[in-house]
Design brief:
The chain is mainly α. The protein has one domain. The protein has helices at about 5-30, 40-60, 65-90, 110-130. It is elongated.
Length: about 130
């Protein structure tokens, strides 16, 4: 079964856009503004790596990539929730926002919705395979 058809193709495309945008943003922040907000900018870099990994894993076939897809999407979900909560409870850590700050409010909350859609898609696809 091909993973990249229909809804899956759209999901992978959105992950790819976020991988590019988060990587560009985090790279600039780490190179030129790191001293202003090291925690937030480091988390943006982590988010960029996770988006890259998820994009690649979701577009590949096989058990190995399946495990990486699940791991990266679940890590992303926990990151969005954890950083989202911390950005409200410890706002001093996030004077400059990261991709996941405020549950992704700087990106129209797509970072909060994307891993949920990823989990749903992976679960449905796994059910069809078995």
């Amino acid at each position: 079964m091909r993973k990249n058809l229909g809804v899956g193709r759209l999901l992978i495309a959105v992950y790819a856009v976020f991988a590019l945008s988060a990587t560009a943003r985090a790279s600039y922040q780490l190179l030129f503004e790191f001293d202003q907000a090291p925690v937030a900018y480091s988390l943006s870099a982590v988010a960029a790596i996770v988006y890259i990994l998820a994009t690649v894993a979701l577009s590949r076939s096989g058990r190995y990539w399946e495990k990486i897809a699940w791991g990266s999407v679940l890590f992303e979900l926990s990151g969005v929730i954890g950083v989202g909560i911390l950005s409200f409870t410890l706002p001093e850590l996030f004077s400059h926002p990261s991709v996941w700050s405020g549950f992704g409010e700087g990106y129209a909350y797509v970072p909060a919705v994307l891993p949920v859609l990823g989990v749903i898609w992976l679960a449905r696809r796994d059910a069809k395979i078995q």
